[in-house]
């Protein structure tokens, strides 16, 4: 019995999802004959009304025991009850449940029944899911899966190359869930300094470490009732992974420097560009955490494998770029420019496409146009020869010399475009490009595009 969802594609283009399920049949006591399904990750049993299964028996403690859904299966754990928890007649602190086992809670007996709920998911008939678009079979298969699973609380692990839109899919999942009115909190595990990521996730108390001048809420607490998106989860330090696993299983945590447990109700979506299975084999990622996150694994295809989606993507991205300038005519693209885009390999995927279109839109508007033409498309997009934006190939030059000419031409055009975009403000342009201000100043001087030189 496993806690992970099995997703596989059938020959008929549909997907079959096998969801492991567990039910408890009450064999004795007041609720004899009742059967309760254990659908959530944490299921508590006891006499108090706060429990998921309430047993009104004097031998049962207020919160007697709990069942955790883990990668290996369902773990039964006693919570310090007065009369103990038995599994097949033996008292336990914690043990994995087996089909047909008898759990004794005080004097109430429960029978374990396991089964797999098999769901066939056909490709969606729609060409979008939230802000994600695509008419290719690969994308419509993903949309079909998301349409069924987004309304649930299932943990989703998004994989795929950089720029494939994992963050957009995560936001679409949240928007399609019952938690849409609650916050979605994003933590980029690769962007936070290692020494601070524990505080970023769990918060800290005042004085917990040097510089902690006041208490701070972490992402888990801020996301209570909503969705927590753990981006680039593969970058999470190995020593912090057991703590994250514990919080995911128990839905409770302690802030750094705190002594009191805090419970949260969250849905987790994680994303990574790494192959986590390979990282597990290399000892860089915990296997139990991987299975805990990969309840529903979804791999987003690179753009080069779904070029039939390019016209839809261009239409959506141009609509977004047009919305940034509502006072100007909507942007369009010439067929020749669209064909040129289709010939590119797109190593940066949809993110690269958006950057290319944003640059082309700027060039078009600067010329007083609203149609993106072939001349607006930057170098290297399968044009084969030259454009008005690129130097011509010279057979007399070596590879290194040719590369240097192209890099110099790109550098000059980019710096000029960047400064024009920010009205000649060096500081604002440097911040937008994530560059050192002095370095940008130096580049602008070198290429003769410095605002001071232009004014003179």
Describe the structure.
This protein is α/β, with parallel strands linked by helices and 456 residues long. Helices cover 31% and strands 22% of the residues. The chain has 14 helices and 23 strands. It has helices spanning 137-149, 166-175, 197-202, 219-222, 241-250, 276-281, 287-293, 310-323, 335-342, 349-366, 399-421, 426-433, 437-446, 451-455; strands spanning 6-9, 15-26, 35-38, 42-46, 53-54, 65-69, 74-78, 85-87, 90-92, 94-96, 102-105, 108-121, 128-129, 132-133, 156-159, 184-188, 227-231, 252-253, 262-263, 267-272, 296-299, 332-333, 371-372. A hairpin with a 2-residue loop joins strand 11 and strand 12 (108-121). Helix 8 packs across helix 10 (349-366). The radius of gyration is 28 Å and the shape is elongated.
Outline of this structure?
The chain has 456 residues and is an alpha/beta fold.
Please tally the helical runs, counting DSSP H or I stretches of 4 or more residues: 14
Beta-strand portion reads 15-25%
Mean pLDDT: 85
Oligomer: single chain
Estimate percent helicity.
25-40%
Q: Any idea what the shape is? A: elongated
Number of strands: 23
Our measurement of the CA-to-CA distance between the termini, rounded to an integer number of angstroms, reads: 76 Å
Q: What summary fits the major beta sheet? A: 7 strands, antiparallel
Task: Name the structural class.
Answer: alpha/beta
């Amino acid at each position: 019995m496993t806690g992970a969802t099995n997703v596989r594609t059938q020959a008929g283009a549909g997907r079959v999802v096998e969801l492991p399920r567990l039910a408890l049949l009450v064999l004795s006591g007041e609720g004899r004959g009742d059967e309760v399904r254990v659908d959530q990750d944490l299921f508590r049993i006891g006499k108090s009304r706060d429990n998921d299964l309430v047993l009104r028996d004097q031998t049962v403690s207020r919160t007697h025991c709990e069942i955790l859904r883990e990668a290996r299966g369902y773990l039964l754990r006693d919570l310090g009850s007065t009369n103990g928890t038995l599994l097949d007649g033996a008292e336990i602190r914690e043990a994995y449940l087996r089909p047909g086992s008898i759990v004794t809670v005080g004097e109430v007996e429960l029978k374990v029944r396991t089964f797999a709920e098999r769901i066939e998911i056909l490709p969606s008939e729609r060409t979008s899911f939230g802000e994600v678009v695509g008419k290719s079979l690969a994308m419509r298969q993903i949309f079909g899966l998301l349409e069924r699973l987004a309304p649930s609380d299932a943990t989703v692990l998004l994989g795929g190359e950089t720029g494939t839109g994992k963050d957009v899919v995560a936001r679409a999942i949240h928007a399609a869930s019952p938690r849409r009115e609650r916050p979605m909190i994003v933590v980029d595990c690769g962007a936070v300094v290692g020494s601070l990521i524990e505080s970023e996730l769990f918060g800290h108390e005042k004085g917990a470490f040097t510089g902690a001048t006041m208490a701070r809420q972490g992402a888990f607490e801020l996301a209570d009732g909503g969705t927590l998106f753990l981006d680039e989860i593969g970058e999470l330090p190995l020593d912090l992974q057991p703590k994250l696993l514990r919080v995911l299983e128990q839905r409770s945590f302690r802030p750094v420097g705190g002594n009191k447990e805090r419970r949260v109700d969250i849905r987790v979506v994680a994303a990574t560009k790494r192959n986590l299975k390979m990282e597990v084999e290399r000892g860089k990622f915990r296997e139990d955490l991987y299975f805990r996150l990969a309840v529903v694994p979804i791999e987003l295809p690179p753009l080069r494998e779904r070029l039939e989606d390019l016209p839809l993507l261009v239409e959506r991205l141009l609509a977004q770029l047009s919305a940034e300038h509502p006072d100007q005519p909507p942007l369009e693209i010439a067929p020749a420019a669209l064909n040129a885009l289709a010939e590119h390999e797109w190593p940066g995927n949809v993110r690269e496409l958006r950057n290319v279109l944003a640059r082309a839109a700027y060039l078009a508007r600067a010329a007083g146009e609203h149609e993106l033409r072939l001349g607006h498309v930057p170098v290297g997009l399968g044009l084969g020869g030259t454009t008005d934006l690129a130097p011509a190939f010279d057979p007399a030059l070596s590879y290194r010399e040719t590369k240097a000419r192209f890099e110099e031409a790109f550098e000059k055009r980019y710096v000029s475009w960047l400064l024009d975009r920010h009205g000649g403000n060096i500081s604002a342009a440097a911040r937008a490009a994530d560059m050192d201000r002095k370095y940008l100043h130096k580049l602008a001087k070198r290429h003769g595009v410095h605002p001071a030189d232009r004014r003179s």
